């Protein structure tokens, strides 16, 4: 039993950082009542969706709108593993916010490159903390 609990504890951050399918997470949720999405994981999912919409706007030459302040929560949202918020995390999150903001001030012919720079900042941080979602994040890149 003790071994099992240890396994769960160490398994959690890995689970949240793997490319686990939603259904599997849901199933895991039902089985282990302990598992919950962290505030940061939820924010990341929201950032993903918002940038998917933004990508389509850029591809279709539509107005990109404005930077969303909710992204700033990256500086405070609670992580599954609070130790992940180290110096390197802070540097990457600042760079990410700057690159995300720059999309909204980029000119029409720079906006696609600026969007891809932002996506690469997501990937860069993920290479240091959370490898699982990288293939999914790379799908955001505009070819
Ligand atoms: C500063 C580092 C950093 C940046 C920048 C970053 N991430 Fe993350 N991301 C993380 C960490 C750490 C986690 C794990 C969060 C947790 O489990 O609490 C994560 C988790 C995720 C997840 C998985 C959430 C889940 O379902 O468990 C996705 C998807 C994701 N990020 C997408 C993105 C996207 C898209 C971007 C850019 C728009 C981005 N991330 C930018 C560090 C970062």
UniProtKB/TrEMBL annotation:
Molecular-function GO terms, alphabetical: electron transfer activity; heme binding; iron ion binding
Transmembrane spans: none
GO terms of biological process kind: electron transport chain
InterPro entries given in the database record: Cyt_c/b562
Top-level taxon of origin: Bacteria
Protein name: Cytochrome C
